[in-house]
Specification:
disordered C terminus, 3 helices, three-stranded antiparallel β-sheet, mainly alpha, flat, 145 residues
Length: 145
């Protein structure tokens, strides 16, 4: 009886593992496709007539895409033990300023030189943005998708 239970559990495990592998492959492909479209959007948004566009409303579902332009946002970052050790070794100021110094030093290399896009629902969200263009107005007809 115990052996049959184990065999049944192992088969179920194998089935779930196979399904996860398939889903992960599909997710990888979708992320690749999404990155391609983001690059296409970036190329279009570099054009002069789109310089002041910061949000694209999607009328079908009320969501919108927040546009973060190059040099205006920082990538998220973490600090490895090696990086921390190197930073500590190069620090010469007072210990009370150490945290701020490390953060500023790390931020310098994290300013993005690329566009970033984030799709948000038009309902209130945690970053306090509503369905406006960031300056209190709604995006014009060229901002609707």
């Amino acid at each position: 009886m115990d052996q049959r239970d184990l065999v049944r559990a192992v088969r179920k495990y194998r089935t779930l593992d196979d399904e996860l592998k398939e889903l992960n492959a599909k997710v990888y492909k979708l992320r690749e496709d999404k990155k391609f479209v983001e690059n296409e959007m970036s190329d279009i948004l570099r054009r002069g007539n789109f310089q002041n566009l910061h949000k694209l409303e999607i009328q079908d579902d009320g969501s919108y895409i927040k546009i973060q332009r190059p040099e205006t946002w920082s990538k998220p970052w973490s600090l490895s033990q090696k990086e921390l050790k190197d930073l500590l070794a190069s620090y010469t100021g007072p210990i009370s300023d150490l945290f701020r110094w490390i953060v500023e030093r790390k931020k310098q290399g994290m300013v993005s030189h690329e566009f970033a896009f984030k799709r948000l629902m038009a309902v209130d969200n945690n970053d306090g943005e509503g369905a406006t263009d960031g300056e209190g107005g709604r995006v014009g007809s060229h901002g609707n998708a």
